[in-house]
Amino acid sequence: MLHQMESDSSNEGPEASMDLLSLPESPPSKPSASDISEHEFTCHCCYDILVNPTTLTCGHNFCRHCLALWWESSRKNECPECREKWEGFPKINILLRDATDKLFSEVVQRRRAEIQANPNISRSLLAFQRYGDNLGRSRTNQHKGAGFFFSGVLTALSCVAVLVLVFYWSSGAVEPHDLLISKPVSHWEPEEVVSWLEHLGPWAQLYREPFQQENVNGRLLLMLGDEELSKPPYNIENQAHRRAVLAELDRVKILGVKPPQNLWEYKVTNAGKSLFLLYALKRTPRLTLFYLYMFDYSETFLPFLHTCCPAITHIGQSMESSFLSAQLEPSWRQWAEFLVKYLLLPYQLIAEFALDWLAVHYWTSRFIIVNAMLLSVLEGCALWRLWTRATIRSLPRKMWNHLCKMLSQGFAFALLWPFVPQFVCNCLFYWALYFSPIINIDLVVQQLMHPETQAP
Fold first, then answer.
1. pLDDT per residue over 43-80, tens digit each?
2. What is the rounded average pLDDT of the residues 270-289?
3. Which of 111, 228, 256, 303 has a 20 to 30 A CA-CA distance from 76?
């Protein structure tokens, strides 16, 4: 038997012997997940499993928050390992992220919870994302084409129009006249007294002729009282009319001049305050209204509140009665309505006030109403971003920082205001009044078309 096996093997040749030698060897086994080293999926900044791995142009991978911390500290677009500059804005490697999530799910979930609980890391990630958003917008703006050209032309024409109007107004092309808001009452001419009476409302037209016939000047006006107005030659028998005239006459006696009754008169008497209000209304309308309540209650805040939150009027109430009630303290219902609008819809208050003055400031009121609508949209978009990005808890801190910023700017404005030339003040005033809606239209379009690229 043994000889037969040897002869058979010899007959089959060397190939058979090679097969015999290879029989003990087992086929190669497939690599398992346990054979994969964690070192292959380790970030070279934190030396832990990659979380949201971000691949740079040099090929190195890092945790996104590690890359954000490195960028924030160095402000360099360089790889933390090889110092090669990256191009564009680094993106998350989706394939590598899915692999790490499957292979090291427990570690990745634990690290993500730690990252979300760390406010410093969240702030760095937000700053890094803002940098990428600004980089993307700057590149987009380079290729806007006709839209960008049209926006530039519109901006240039608006600037030229505002400057021409301001220069025309300040150069004395319009004949200067002594406004009643700056001229003492005792120096008023009879025509100016009649003009003051007409400003009280259409109902005051009934008594224009007696004042003209008696040639009432400023000194005589200050001597008039309830008894004189109820008797000839004035014959103001209507008690509501007489009370309205006396109420406004008391305000004139206290101020010594006619109180401002429209935007332009308010600008003349309160140049710095009007400019401050225009700029502050855009950034902090609630703080601006509180400022009016504290420092300009009777002359500005009360008429504003009565206009936006009118008292319940009876059917058939005359216009002069409404004029008289606007000088009274608001009721608790008016305060409640005002506070709700003040907290939730501050720009609606401004729009309602401008709408009431539509007959006096035709185009200006429309500019203010449109601007208030645009600012409401911008504020709504900002709140929506805070809600969707789960950063609503940071709202108190943001509000406090914004309040400190506005207070510091207001204080600096109050110090530097006396040194600002009148011409510069006029330029800034008309710029803020008429040019802000054009800027806000562009901001609203950006918010609605590219909401994901807007930083909160």
1. 888 888 888 899 888 888 899 889 888 888 887 888 88
2. 76
3. 111
311-357 pLDDT per residue, tens: 765 444 454 555 555 556 788 888 899 999 888 888 888 888 888 87
pLDDT of 369 over the 70 cut: yes
Which residue's structure tokens are 């500005």?
300
Cβ atoms of 189 and 210 within 8 Å: the answer is no
CATH 3.40.980.20 fits 38-141, yes or no: no
Q: What count of other Cβ atoms lies within 10 Å of the Cβ of residue 318?
A: 15
- Letter for the amino acid at 113? A
Q: Is the pLDDT of residue 33 over 70?
A: no
- Which one of 3.30.465.10, 1.10.150.50, 1.25.40.10, 1.10.150.130 gives the CATH number of domain 185-255? 1.10.150.50
pTM for the model: 0.54
Report the phi/psi class of residue 138: left, alpha or beta, with left for phi > 0 and alpha for psi in -120 to 50: alpha
